[in-house]
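Support case: iron/sulfur cluster complex. Customer-provided input:
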Amino acid sequence: MKIGIPRALLYHYYYPFWKTYFDSLGIETVVSSPTNKWIMDKGIKYSVPEICVPIKVYLGHVLELIDRGVDYIFVPRFVSIQKGQFFCPKFMGLPDIIRHTFPEMEPVMLSPYVESTTDDLATSLKQYQIFEDKFGITRSDNRKALKKAETVWKLFREYSLNGYDIPEATQKAMSEGCQTIGDYKRSLDDKYEYAEVTIGVLGYVYNIYDSVISLDIVNRLKEMGVRIKTFEMIDDETLKKQLANMPKTLFWTFSDKLFAAGNHFYHDPDVDGIIHVTAFGCGPDSMLGKLLELDSTKFEKPFMTVRIDEHSGENHLQTRAEAFVDMLKRRKRKLKKGALA
Amino acid sequence: MQELFMGVDVGSVSTNIVVIDKDINVVSSQYIRTNGQPLETVKKGLKQLKSEFPDDTRIHGVGTTGSGRQLVGVMIGADVIKNEITAHATATIQFVPDVRTIFEIGGQDSKIIVVEDQMVVDFAMNTVCAAGTGSFLDHQAERLGIPIDQFGGKALSADRDVRIAGRCTVFAESDMIAKQQFGFSKAEIIKGLCEALVRNYINNLGRGKKLEPPYVFQGGVAANEGIKAAFEKEINHEVLIPEHFNIMGAVGAAILARDEIFVTGRKSKFRGLSAADLEFTPRTFECEDCPNHCEVIEVKVNDEVVARWGDRCGKWTNSVQQLDL
Ligand code: SF4
Ligand code: SF4
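Agent response - structure generated as follows:
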């Protein structure tokens, strides 16, 4: 028996957890391929045109998994992972979007109802009970699997907090090694010792780490010798502190994290500029983007919005990113030297 | 001895070569038709420079931009190779530090660059549709039998307004003929054409962008007063035209080279004005080692590969040994 995991949406945040969990229960998993043209085209074909790209892409991944002959598809219903805050409605209704688009998928969907008070999914056993009934798993095995998953996921978060991006952190957390995080951190610092500028890249994990959706902006910037910071590299305490000063916060968990991260970047002297990567048609981001943009003048930090949809052009993004980085370097040199009049 | 920096903007239609001094005064500038031969064109330009300056003149830094920037950059030994957006914006910011919107209309392409606090935050570029570029005007000038350099002045002398529907060159042309038959004067038609071009340009490139003043208008077409007036009418605000409006890309490249040299303190990689004498042979090939099928460009000097680019994975770029010529 095989469970398919779409390489989309919160795969980019919870894969180490899910993979470890299923592995320790002895359940085989299949992950869809990294987003490619086939996946993108299928996703677009079966979605309503107005919906945001990451959801379109998600549908494409689901179809690829069906195509590859999995028995089940893992489509969690994310409702809340923080008290008083919710997920974007598209997450809450994700299983329904799939169900209504492809009625034949209803019986093969595994959709735990995710509602907890922290982003550590192991804290609410309730959502995993569906696997006990479905696959004849004992309560104690379930608990053990969750414990393991939690450990690996926490390690993954630890790497993120130490400055690794999601693919790096995933890989490190999931490969057994004896190096401590401290060693890794040092090697990361070496790697970026000569980085002239640091850019805070704000965006949902499923956009910025999907190299097709985001046209690989993270790696493009890295290739230009830029050091990247993202929201998941900032610890919760710091994020909460940012929000405490806000007259009003946003309602959606990850949007709120981005909002907090954006404000943190404005205050962080290491961050030279901010790029907000947002999907065309994203409701929460229309508010988030505006709020951040308004602050950009106050803090005198360059802010650029990159809006992506399925028609975004690679060359255009490359040139835009290059120009932004070039000007950022110039600006920094000017501030430092004062000599270039 | 003067410290000099050179900027080269290699476009598909024309190539500009400028030399600035360390205080960013333009001391020499050339406009040469590219005719599809960027290397030959630049060689010609270098020869010209050699004759303009005393023999012991040294160029302290060189920057290239434009569509042929890589190729020419390799050939002459550029210190910086930058895209057009960076180069243009750098020059504009130099002369109008608080600029927010740059309108750039050249012979073959046009762009809008949105600047905030001296940073490029957005841009749009049009290389496909001729209706928003200078060649549209050239074409119509010819049709009306009026030299292009008198075109703008004529527009200003028009008495009445006439709206030419010009979403596309083809429509504009037929509408223009119709309006002529209605008895509008040439001057009025020209004014209408200028306004059509500006409307097209703003509709195509400015869509969804916040275009805030100060506005700077540059590129070859900025010489045309009719277009300037049409811009001012369309956006209802004054539009500035910088002194070096038609060589901004090259000036920007020169400024970037100057800053690079000042900051790093390095010696320029420039091969000298006699680089014109070396034989450069470029070729392209398609790499079939993976599904990306990159088109790789390779440049040889005396049978030795001096540069490769265009590969996404870097395997070709990295296999080139640095050559000292
Ligand atoms: S937050 Fe925005 S991008 Fe993410 S699923 Fe919701 S609408 Fe789409
Ligand atoms: S150059 Fe590299 S990326 Fe491009 S086709 Fe060859 S192997 Fe693939």
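The mean pLDDT of chain A is 87.

Case will auto-close in a few days if no follow-up is received.
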